Fold each of these.
Amino acid sequence: AALPEEARGAELIQQLVLERIPEVFGVASDEVQVIAPRYQGAMGVDELNGRLRAGLNPVRANRSEVVFGNRQFRVGDRVMSIRNDQEKEVVNGLQGRITDAEPGSKAVTVLFDGEISATFRGEQLDNLTHAYAITAHKSQGGEFPVVLLAMDQSAGRLLYRQLLYTAITRARHLLILVGDPSALDRATANDRPRHRWTGLAWWLQHGFG
């Protein structure tokens, strides 16, 4: 179960994106990018995507959707390509909106950057993910008017200085941090991300014989 402070943080993020940022700063919810250190948890990408999607693009009779695995792609959804597709002229990290969904043929059409229209069918839908909230890694190379960074202590080793740098440099006008102040302290103090040790360096030094 989510810790109370994490659940409150998720609710605050939802409120900020849907109501307070548009009211106070005059920035549309669509121009706010939520960034989180991880996918799991109450303040993780998966949970925040569900919350924000429910508020920004709820189920409606006139909005068709395609079910793919445990995900639903609905007309109006904010999505992101997670793989390069030269044929479709779509690159990893490019965001867009679903303009059409055909449940019968399991196909959705996405308008990327307001100019590139691409249709994804069947297994190709695995190349798409919802993008109301994304990880810092997936945000690299992008720029958004407002960035909201979710910081919770339970993210553990995923809190590091580069995460803050990435979020700051993604924000064109405004950066908002939501979460535990101790998580910010931890990220500031941790100057390197978690490494995955493969033993390659040892083998290069000592040889394979």
Amino acid sequence: NSIMERIMEKRSAEGLPAKAIQWGAVGEVGLVADMAEDKIDMEIGGTLQQRISSCIQEMDRLMSCDAPIVASMVVAEKRAGGASKNIIEAVMNIMSIKDLKTVSMESTLADIGMDSLMAVEIKQVLERDFDLVLSPQDLRTLSFAKLLKLDEDRKKAETDRQQAEEEGFEIGMQMLLRNLGDEEHSDQTIMKLPTASDQGCPVLLIPGLEGVAGKVYGTMVEAINAPVYILQLMATLECDDVPSIVDLVIEDVCSKVFSGLKEYTIV
């Protein structure tokens, strides 16, 4: 079909007559009629059967349009709640198998009765509903035992993903709590942190966006042999820019940290 369509495109580009029609499932004749029996609403590969009368009616419109490649099919509407809960059930529905006990778990689906139309629909359903992409070779060797294993692996992967998300959320909350400041002392512009020694060149820490002395800072500086102070910005919430923040805190910084000193460190 693909080769024929490329030929039609080439003929059309050369100004020659060319038309390829992509039909969906045509009802009332052939393999589809044998499969469907009296079920005209049977869904095949996401499409319904198109009656012969409809095909003939559409033929005139398709032949008279300019495009070299056209298509006609009846797209099935998605039914609410129609999706199968698991892979096994989905494939059983496509193959019209009522009881799994009536088939061999190790036999390939082809041996059980999967034809080309069923194979296409199974491939589409697995990709659309279960995010499973199978190659043609995988599909030919597929059995219910393999489907069961795929379903178990998929559920395990989903469980692992949810668990990882929950753990990530918990870690994020822990980090957030570590960075939250001590509410009791958050109104202090300059706060001294406990260190190993108060001797040496003083260090002034500038906090991040949180603007307060979170627990993480205490852990960071507890082994430092120098006095460490941290600047808290709760008093600057009404400030609109950096210069106004500096004007508000500079007096406290100079009097409590840098008073009379020639050397100091700002981090």
Amino acid sequence: MRLGAYVPNFAAETTQGRLQFYDWLGDSWCILFSHPADFTPVCTSELCRLAESHCEFWQRGVKLLALSCDRLRSHTSWLEDLKKFSRTLPTQFPYPIIADESRELAVMLDMIDENQKDNPEMAMTVRSLYIIGPDRRVKLTMQYPNSTGRSVEEILRVIDSLQLTSRLKCVATPSDWEPGKQLMILPHVKDEDLPALFPGGVDTVDTPSGQNYIRTTNDVWREPWRSRQPKQRQPEMFHPTLAAQSMDESTSLNEVIKFIDEVARMPNLKQMPLSDLMELTSSLVSETTYTQSTSERLQAMTKFLGALTL
């Protein structure tokens, strides 16, 4: 798919159940990526690295969705190998993997190698990656050969760039940019507007051509750009699996209660999806069963119920 292409809705079987893409995506950003095959070394390293960095993507409001042409049974079996290879993954693998056995989605999403596109029934997916915005349009594409694994650090870097420049239409990120480094001001911004837009200062490079088109600044996070953002960032949704995944049989009651108190302070608690709410309830009930005292369990659950009614 090309930049700016509108990603069509689709249904798919995944390791987390049947998925309707638009319903699953909601208002989030998304990384939709393919891998050539299950039970292969480079694919194992890629999916594990992305899973280990799931919190980094979640904090940016980005969902992950993998795809290959393997059967669902193959994906499910392979997940056990992924957990063994990583050793730091949560009990539940944090993102779904699509089983596109018919290759219908791979062809529709242009994830097939050029040399194999005329024989899609036998072709495997290449290492395609699409970053999709909340408007369901492709914001960035990457395609790697089977021999080369992708860099999670680079994926996070370009997400930071895309999200920043989608909010601030007057700047762009230069080569090797990372958050906190200088940004470049786009040519359409007039020189006379710079003091008001960037009161912290602008650096201009003198060029032999005499055209002052190389202008940089570190001032983008100051006013007035905060108030000039075209759309406020949506409140982050609470994700109970990520918050509770560090708990195990050794978790003390005090730690459980502390977790409940943290839930109670979440400003967006009432926006929690019903499925997440049920998952949270199940997690807390499970954790409180490790205590021996009925009164302690009751105390923990009372705090939890109080949190839900805030």
Amino acid sequence: MFRADTRATSNSINVSNSYMIDTVYLYIETILGNNHGIIDVDVPPVVNQPKNENQDLKDLLIFLWDSLIEATNPKKVILIGAGRGCRSLAGLINERDYSIMEKVVCTIMIPGPNEVPSVSKRTDLSTWYQSNANVLLPANHPFWEKKIKREHGTCSKIEDLNNMPVQDMLVHLHNDMFSHINQILVSGGPVNSSNEERNN
């Protein structure tokens, strides 16, 4: 990500005050620094979002799950979705439900201003998702006006995220997220905690 500081008079970029923000690298560095493996799938920003983007990304995630996760059979898998990728990640969970319920110990979704994804309403999957998935949302997200159900996961309302771009949310949440993840890896199971939970 490139953050540009522009001049008010000409709208040209002030190079000396502009800088690169690599939020993904921050996460990769933390994960590899703790001797864990990582599969990173980046969804680049586009001006005109392709109609089949969600399906294409879901198909890619299914391919990676089948080819890498199933093939290597890791004991503890953590799924992290951000921005538009959250919807496709929920699609993966629906498509590989039993395998994911067996292997995944934590799911974190940071949709930002995008639609909050849901998994199948099937009782076993939605119950698992509610106890396993932490969905971190700005307090001003329109989702809070809806009735929140199990298939939405455990949703947390976080005032600090209001009006933040997704990349900034990732930086802001980094330390708390990995503290939560480390608790789960030590305990071996979900440890749900949130600012506000409204699940039925």
